[in-house]
């Protein structure tokens, strides 16, 4: 199983949109996919039409030891499942602060889950707190969504340092394996220039840094598309909402690129500890 955390501490870069629609695209390609919503805003859950209320188990109960992943998991289709979140998860940051081994809780819960998937996608909050560190310890791969904007590199060094520290101290299998550009406007010179800058940044920084030596700058660009912004309000992925849109075409192309990455390159697989 490929276990992937989609992470960026900067909001508004297409993180949740990518987590949901990439998961849906992989499921359409015949893979079994589970998306875990680790953001207290629960946008990934809402995007898929799930509102967790009234004592239904969520990521909060899982992390606090009150429910198993199987208890909380909901099936969206025969190939796609989601473990939802809600605002209660915001309290987990405080409640777990004094817990011994708090960084390992999600990994341990996953080890107890017997359900088999081809892909596990973790939609992380826009922060570098306990929830995000739990995700980084539980997975083997990180996908980094970036917007082609000059501010895209702002804070990137801090994010990479966090991933590297987790890789060195808590999860030696962790690798940054993919960088994706979202909200791309091919008609602007700025997008092309920033894309080049981002690519050069990663190429220059790779030397001597094992945790993203083999990171792939995905060729697929997720174009700016209003349908992608509309789909969450209908509780649908882009494939249910507007299957003929550029957004659907781009995420399907990205899914195919990721599947090819698995077939032709050595990618880390998550196994129970």
Architecture overview:
With 273 residues, the protein is of the alpha/beta class. It has a single domain (2-264), classed as 3-Layer(aba) Sandwich (Rossmann fold). The chain has helices at 15-28, 43-47, 59-63, 69-72, 89-95, 105-111, 130-138, 156-169, 189-205, 226-230, 238-241, 246-264; strands spanning 2-6, 33-37, 74-75, 80-83, 119-123, 141-146, 175-184, 216-223. It has an 8-stranded mixed beta sheet with strand order 3-4-2-5-1-6-7-8, sandwiched between helices. The model has no long low-confidence stretch (mean pLDDT 89).
Order of neighbouring strands in the sheet with most strands:
3-4-2-5-1-6-7-8
C-alpha geometry: globular
- Residue stretches low in confidence (pLDDT < 50, at least 5 long) are none
Strand content: 15-25%
Total count of helical runs of at least 4 residues = 12
Provide the helix percentage: 40-55%
CATH topology: Rossmann fold
What is the N-to-C succession of helices and strands?
A: EHEHHHEEHHEHEHEHEHHH
Say which CATH homologous superfamily is assigned.
P-loop containing nucleotide triphosphate hydrolases
Largest sheet: 8 strands, mixed
Structural class: alpha/beta
- Overall pLDDT: 89
CATH class: Alpha Beta
Question: From the coordinates shown, what is the CATH architecture?
Answer: 3-Layer(aba) Sandwich
Question: Care to count the β-strands?
Answer: 8
Oligomer: single chain
Write down the Rg: 17 Å
